[in-house]
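Treating backbone geometry as a discrete language has practical consequences that deserve illustration. In the encoding step, the backbone of a single protein was reduced to a row of integers, each denoting a local shape. The amino acid sequence and the backbone structure tokens for this protein are reproduced below.
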Amino acid sequence: MTPDLMEDRAQALAAHERKLAASAGGRWEGGFGRPMAHGVPDFAQGVALYVEDVTVSFDGFKALNALSLAIGVGELRCIIGPNGAGKTTMMDVITGKTAPDQGKVHFGSNIDLLRLRENEIAQIGIGRKFQKPTVYEELSVFENLELALKADRRVRASLFSRLTGEQLDRIGAMLERIHLKYSAQRQAGLLSHGQKQWLEIGMLLMQDPKLLLLDEPVAGMTDEETERTAELFLSLAGEHSLMVVEHDMKFVDQLTQGHRKVTVLHEGRVLAEGLLSQVQNDDRVVEVYLGR
């Protein structure tokens, strides 16, 4: 990259950060040699997500009941629990879809997610993957990833812009990462269920999320696709923070590898938390979820 292009990129990044700061009602602060906006999450404390005493009621039923948990920066956390435990409602609150009755939710140490709209939460680096894959089926795999790039999506820009070499490299690397290198020109609607899941995950990753929320990502996958998905998620840990809601205990075991923490939800709150081997031997978890 030439010095002129590097300078242009730096100026564009600075303008983007100032825009985020303004949308979050923040101001610029000095620190670590460069200004930081309140609209840019501060992970200096090592925690990506704080959920504290969050309660959500629907017609008197508490979907979440004083729920508290924290996800570390770069952590891969599996969330398990019976149907109705509050897993989906928790993700709805984090992404701004549902407003809680009470509680606090922070992204990093400085961003109050409860003050932001859904689109603003996505813009600051939180991506969500629902159970059913949502891709542009009439477009190619490559075109789906191209659309997902952070870029000016005004009509004029979309009609006349061309991908830069750097953007082409990013898409190529993503195709490799999501196991679709040899399907780049294939119509997305012709992909298998598992491949569509990978493509949607790739589309999220093209937007540089700092936290990924993944809801039962391997439901309906073959054993081989499930194993490849585990490999993908493990490669993302450390680079991104991941919250994976899942019922497939074999998949959870593949992700945790005996040393990652698992959180068990029940009746809208944390029932147990620890290594998978620990929660599997917790009598409360066995009774309400795993069975004997």
Confidence is low (pLDDT under 50) at residues 1-38. The CA atoms of residues 96 and 117 lie 6 Å apart. The first helix runs from residue 3 to 23. Residues 1-37 form one domain.
